Description:
Helices cover 22% and strands 37% of the residues. By secondary structure, it is an alpha+beta fold. The chain has 2 domains: 72 residues, Alpha-Beta Complex (Outer Surface Protein A, domain 3); 82 residues, Outer Surface Protein A, domain 3. It has a 4-stranded antiparallel beta sheet, covered by helices on one side. A 3-stranded antiparallel beta sheet has the order 1-6-5.
Amino acid sequence: MSRIGKRAIAIPSSVKVALENNKVKASGPAGSLELTVNPDVKVEVKGSEIHVLRGSETRTGRSLHGLTRTLIANMVKGVNEGFQKRLEIVGVGYKADVQGGVVNLALGYSHPIKYELPKSVTATVDKQTSLTLKGPDKQVVGQVAADIRSLRPPEPYKGKGIKYSDEVIRRKAGKAGKAAGGK
């Protein structure tokens, strides 16, 4: 039995969960999400809890048990509180700006980069070098953050680029530091 799959998911009072055939729909103050569940897994709503059960003891049913429970738990948390990712922009002249649903980035290229955000994700900029992405869907927020980071990944010599706020960049010594006995 899956240790994660057998744990019940508590439904906050501000969230409404509905089951239709093999679809789970959750709606709350931060938005609404929908998940199609594999027939090898059964979902039940009992009072203010959601229980995820195996529909069959096949390999697929066992492997999807914990995954389905985690996806539903992320849906419930997302429509209640939402998820966020913080990105930091490091480099002279590197900056970000948000206008409507478009993030304008100056990343040292010969042209500015315009990144259009999905409808469910919002972005805010602090001090032109700190970008915060928020949304109800954990996967979409993470993918948008990864896409923006991939426009200028951090480099190991000076640390310039876009990085996650909790990311640690392993720095390398340059040619001069290596000859002088640097790290």
